[in-house]
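Morning - calcium ion inputs below, output right after.
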Amino acid sequence: MVARFALLCVVACANQVLSVQSSPGDEREPASQRGATGCGCDSLKRAAGAVDADPDPAARYSRGANERTSEAQGEDGKFRSPMILISGGEFLMGTDNPGIPPDGEGPQRPVHVDSFYMDIQEVTNRQFETFVRATGYVTEAEKFGNSFVFEGILSDTVKSQITQAVAAAPWWLPVNGASWRHPEGPDSNVTLRLDHPVLHVSWADAVAYCSWANRRLPTEAEWEYACRGGLKDRLYPWGNNLTPKGQHYANLWQGDFPNQNSGEDGYVKTSPVMSFPANGFGLYDMVGNAWEWTSDWWTVHHTTERQHNPKGPRSGTDKVKKGGSYMCHKSYCYRYRCAARSQNTPDSSASNLGFRCASQEQQ
Ligand SMILES: *[C@@H]1O[C@H](CO)[C@@H](O)[C@H](O)[C@H]1NC(C)=O
Ligand SMILES: [Ca+2]
Ligand SMILES: [Ca+2]
C-alpha cells in the first residue's frame, strides 16, 4: 500500500508542472489554473464487426440509446464487447505541438500498425462480472483492501474515515474496501451501473480479463491509431473542436476542477458506455469516461524513425494509459486528446481507470 501510494504521488506531483498550451483549433476556455494543483486524471446484440452508420448523432444522447444491450455472446458462451476491424495502415503518432510536453507526446512520428480488432466500448461492469463469476478472479484492489477514489464522489461517511491523502493531489483518497464492486467504497455498488466502464482494475486485472476473453490489451500505437478514427493531425477522435455545434462528444469535466463539476455533458461520474457519438471507426468513449490501460511500458523518449507495430520499451516501472476520463478538464488534465498519454504503476487502481481489449482475430 505504501509503495502504491508513493508512486501515485510521484505521478500526481509530476503533473504539477503542466501548463495549458494552445493548439490548433483549441477552445479558449478560461484557464482557471491554480498554483499547486496536479492533474485530476492520475492517479447490442449486434454482429461483431458491424456498427450501423448513425444518421443522427444526437440520438446517442437519448435514454433509449443508452439502454441498448452492448454484449455479443460468442460461440463459447462468453458475453463480451462487440469488436470492429481496424484496417491496418500508417499514421502519424504523437504530436509536434504537445499539450503537455513532459508527457512525451512528441515528436510526431510515422507508425504502421497491422490490422487488428478493437472492442467498440470500454469493458463494462456487467462484462467484468461474467468473467469474475466464471473464474473466481479477485482483483488487486480487493487483495490490497483499498483503492483510490476521487474525493468529489465519496459519501461523507466514507470521507470521515479517511486519515491519509496524497499531498500534491488531495482529491485522491485511499478508500478501504473500494473496488470494482464498490467504486466509492463499501457503501456503494454497481447494481445501477452495469453498463458503465469497470473501474478499480489494475493492469494485471485488465490483462487477466482480456486473456479470459481470448483477447489482449491494445498497444499504445494501436490505441492511438484507433482513437484517431482515420483523421489526420486532429486533437480529438472527431476533429479539433471540442464541442461541435455545442454538443458534447465525450464524458469530461465541465466547471472548476476539483471543486465543481456542472455535469453539462450529462454526467458527473462515469456514463454508460456508448452514451456519446462513435468516432469514424465506430469506437465509443476513446477519450473521456474511463482512462484505458495499454500493453506498453511507459517512456517519454520516442524514435522519429518509421516504426512497424511498435510495442514500447521492453521493461519499465509504469504502464501507459490513454484517453483521459470524466475527471479531465483542460485546466488540469488536458489529456482527452488522442496524442495525450499518462502512466501508472501496473498495480495502481482508481475510480477513473478502466480498459478495453483488442485482438488479432475476428471473434
Ligand atoms: C446498491 O446501491 C443502491 C443505491 O445506488 C441502493 O439503493 C441498493 O440498496 C444497493 N444494493 C445493495 C445490494 O447494496
Ligand atoms: Ca462529465
Ligand atoms: Ca475511455
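Note: The chain is about 15% helix and 15% strand.

O.
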